[in-house]
Specification:
Layout (H helix, E strand, L loop, with lengths): L3 H8 L3 H4 L1 H6 L20 H19 L1 H10 L3 H4 L5 H8 L24 H12 L7 H30 L8 H4 L2 H6 L5 H16 L3 H12 L9 H11 L2 H25 L1 H13 L7 H9 L6 H22 L6 H15 L8 H11 L3 H26 L9 H27 L32 H20 L1
Length: 487
């Protein structure tokens, strides 16, 4: 008789057994994991291994910032770009009034910005880090310590992300190594405070996968209070719940999101409305900026594209509507992670600015939507090219007449690499939606491991000529597989 532990181990999908790139890469550490290997057993569970790898890679990312920590942030504007170690964190410690103990949103900041231009929960994160920063010593030393404090807090967020991704797909915990080992994750983790929103979003997806829509909604609301993009996840959930007849669960999630967002924002909204509005007015008024295809058009034509915000909003709504139609038309209901990735990718692709750390929004979603190393690494290679490209371009623009670095034409190629890499991964995910037999997550008989109440639920509303065939196939086969997996 096999033990319960052995049965669980047998159910766990090992990437080296199904992914040629993972198997080839494993040769660096001794080859694919065997059936009787200790890795993944005892204390070395997949979740713990993934968390430790994520922390190790995060630490390597901190080491990559060492030239800037040792002086490039303070003594040379160009050096922090040529070493590709720039971070907003030490610069904003003084520029946003934290060094002077100004209260975010309430106190005016000397200079053009006037108020902190970040959402409330991110502002609180920044303020807590400033409380933990000693007040003695030179400003440069305090900026260094402020970056270290934030890096420590963000490392916790990175570990939370890795654990949540590992636990979202119960039988595929090793897919979270895509997150832990992602080069762009390590390179961009300490540029800004995005990991807070990413961690809350990953936790929200974990709660939804455990059929806890209220908790998922609360976490989405908190994530939206830290960064705007997590609210987009409510769109895919609406379409999927509509198709599966789970509107009540969607309503519960929305109520939780709205309530938690208001709890965080209402005090600042009521007591410091001008400071609270700064994030939203800044986002609307911000011109075409780094990383967007709008910048390529603007630089090539000399047109500032003052109407880009309206065009970007219209394109986002149009493409999200197309994703919704895809979800209702597909021969099998798409997985939540697939639609979540597509919607956030659309937001990233058509936005009028793409900061290099925005890739953090997509990495956990990509690992859940398309857990294949080849496709993931192709995309990551493009993002690393962009990461290097933007710093070399800033080195060029800050070098004056010396003109070292990457000229505008070279930077435009780096932007195209980012756009094409993201579009490539989107195309693969769309193909998996239209041809569900190509979806690697479903090849073991799973339906939607991240879907929670949607997992194994029958369709009640679909579009297209596939409707009868889809319902017949579902009634004949899906319940049998779903019941066998939970038997």
């Amino acid at each position: 008789m096999t033990s319960v532990h052995e049965d669980r181990q047998r159910q766990t999908v090992r990437p080296t057994a199904e992914d040629g790139v993972a198997a080839a890469g494993s040769e660096l550490i001794g080859g694919p994991v065997g059936r009787r290997a200790l890795l993944g057993t005892g204390w070395w569970t997949p979740v713990r291994v993934v968390a430790l790898v994520a922390i190790g890679m995060f630490a390597l990312g901190m080491v990559q910032k060492l030239p800037c920590y040792n002086g490039d942030w303070f003594f040379g504007a160009g050096a922090q770009y040529t070493h590709a170690c720039y971070s907003d964190i030490p610069h904003l410690y003084n520029a946003r009034g934290f060094a002077a103990d100004l209260v975010p949103y309430f106190d005016r900041i000397p200079g053009d910005m006037e108020y902190l231009e970040y959402p409330v929960l991110t502002g609180l994160f920044m303020e807590v880090a400033s409380w933990l920063t000693p007040t003695g010593g030179s400003l440069q030393h305090r900026e260094q310590i402020y970056w270290l404090v934030n890096a420590g807090l963000l490392m916790i967020c990175a570990a939370v992300i890795a654990v949540c991704v590992a636990r979202t797909h119960r039988h595929r915990p090793w897919d979270a190594l895509l997150v832990a080992l992602a080069p762009a994750f390590a390179l961009t983790a300490t540029i800004n405070w995005d990991l807070l929103a990413v961690a809350l979003t990953a936790a929200a997806m974990l709660m939804w996968s455990r059929s806890r829509p209220l908790a998922a909604g609360v976490l989405i609301g908190l994530a939206t209070a830290a960064k705007l993009y997590p609210v987009l996840l409510l769109g895919p959930l609406l379409v999927l719940c509509l198709r599966a007849g789970r509107r009540r669960e969607w309503g519960t999630a929305v109520c939780g999101a709205v309530a938690s967002w208001f709890v965080v924002n209402l005090p600042v909204m009521a007591l410091a409305p001008e400071g609270w509005r700064k994030f939203y007015t800044f986002s609307q008024e911000r011109p075409v900026d780094f990383g967007s295809f709008w910048l390529i058009i603007s630089q090539r034509t000399g047109n500032p594209l003052e109407g880009a915000n309206a065009w970007a909003t219209a394109l986002t709504l149009l493409l999200c509507a197309a994703i919704g139609a895809l979800a209702l038309y597909a021969p099998r209901r798409p997985r939540f992670a697939q639609l979540a990735f597509l919607v956030v990718a659309v937001f990233v692709l058509v936005n009028k600015v793409y900061s290099p750390q925005y890739v953090l929004w997509l990495i956990p979603l990509a690992a859940l939507a398309r857990p294949r190393w080849r496709d993931f690494l192709v995309w990551q290679a493009c993002e690393v090219m962009y990461f290097i490209g933007i710093w070399m371009y800033l080195a060029y623009t800050s070098s004056g007449d010396k003109h070292y670095g990457l000229p505008p034409e070279g930077y435009q190629l780096a932007i195209l690499a980012h756009l094409l890499g993201t579009l490539y991964l989107c195309a693969i995910v769309v193909r998996d939606v239209l041809l569900p037999e190509r979806d690697v997550v479903r090849q073991d008989g799973s339906d939607d491991p991240s879907g929670g109440v949607l997992d194994g639920a029958p369709d009640v509303f679909v579009l297209g000529h596939h409707r009868r065939a889809r319902h017949a196939a579902h009634h004949e086969g899906t319940y049998v597989e779903w019941g066998a997996r939970r038997g």
